[in-house]
Write a structure and sequence with these properties.
The structure is a single chain. The protein is mostly helical. Strands 1-2 form a two-stranded antiparallel sheet. Helix 2 crosses helix 6 and helix 14 packs antiparallel against helix 15. The two termini are about 20 Å apart. The relative contact order is 0.13. The protein binds geranylgeranyl diphosphate (GRG). Geranylgeranyl diphosphate binds next to helix 4, helix 8, helix 9 and helix 10.
Length: about 280
């Protein structure tokens, strides 16, 4: 993934160098690559070619990096630490960070449209459609808008779940489906099981993120711990309490594994990733 991203993001020696530097700074050399691994694991299940998966995973990681850069800006979460180093706007400046996020978002769609990812171009168009929906106002960006509006408010559990299904869950779910659509080895029913899996791990990811924000330390997380409480943000731990939030993460893990049952050993990597998402410490 690292090699593919290093090749696909414009080099620092090419003008405008500062913008390219900022894009590379925020995308390379850090991050768990969970979304990329989900693309690869779902693609492997569908018998997809490795190069297709590299491109799809690079697009997903570019979108993810853009979301983190923008989320850290002073007008949003105003954070100074990301992936164990200064956030993009601290290392560069706000305008460069804004543009680096914008350019990474455009790069993602350029990759998805420039490379052959499906045998039938209509299928590839549907893939771009599902992915853009996951990133936009009815997906990640919409979830972020709800999140910003929720500061200091008491959300109900269904409202919190809705926000996170959009903000964090949509991109994770789309990563699984995008990887699966790069191959030709799956039937329509298989996509429903994978979608269920993606929805469960997407939500589990956020529940665990809330738990780590409460229990983790900044050095291990590579980002500022305890930010949600300090910012009076509603979270799974603030609404449910730590023990119930942990039970919810386990329940979601069980549901994710259940969704994979029909694939038997072929979905081993997806099953391992679900375990990792719930058991991770950062
Ligand atoms: C600015 C449009 C826009 C959206 C931002 C996803 C998001 C919406 C903001 C990220 C803020 C955040 C910390 C959300 C919690 C869940 C999350 C996405 C955590 C970061 O993902 P990891 O842990 O990061 O996979 P790494 O660094 O490992 O890639």
């Amino acid at each position: 993934m690292e090699t593919a991203l290093a090749e696909l993001i414009p080099a620092s020696r090419i003008a405008p160098a500062r913008l390219h530097d900022a894009m590379r700074y925020s995308t390379l050399g850090g991050g768990k690559r969970v979304r990329a691994m989900l693309v690869f694991a779902a693609g492997e299940l569908a018998g997809a070619e490795a190069r297709r998966l590299e491109i799809a995973a690079a697009a997903v990681e570019a979108i993810h990096a853009y979301s983190l850069i923008h989320d850290d800006l002073p007008c949003m979460d105003d954070d100074v630490l990301r992936r164990g180093k200064p956030t993009c706007h601290v290392e560069f400046d706000e305008a460069t960070a804004l543009l680096a996020g914008d350019a990474l978002q455009s790069l993602a769609f350029q990759l998805l449209s420039e490379h052959g990812l499906a045998d039938d171009p209509r299928e590839q168009l549907r893939m771009i459609q599902l992915f853009s929906a996951a990133c936009g106002a009815r997906g990640m960006a919409g979830g972020q808008a709800i999140d910003l509006d929720a500061v200091g408010k008491a959300l109900t559990l269904p409202e919190l779940e809705h926000m996170h299904i959009l903000k964090t869950g949509a991109l994770i779910r789309a990563s699984v489906l995008l990887g699966a659509h790069c191959g030709t080895g799956l039937a329509a029913g298989d996509f429903e099981h994978l979608d269920r899996y993606g929805k469960c791990v997407g939500l589990a990811f956020q529940v665990v993120d809330d738990i780590l924000d409460e229990e983790g330390d900044s050095a291990t997380l590579g980002k500022t711990a305890g930010k949600d409480r300090a910012a009076s943000k509603p979270t799974y731990t603030s609404i449910l309490g730590l023990p119930a939030a942990k039970r919810l993460a386990s329940d979601l893990l069980a549901q994710a594994q259940e969704a994979l049952a029909g694939f038997q050993d072929r979905s081993r990597r997806l099953a391992e990733l679900a375990d990792f998402i719930v058991q991770r410490r950062r």
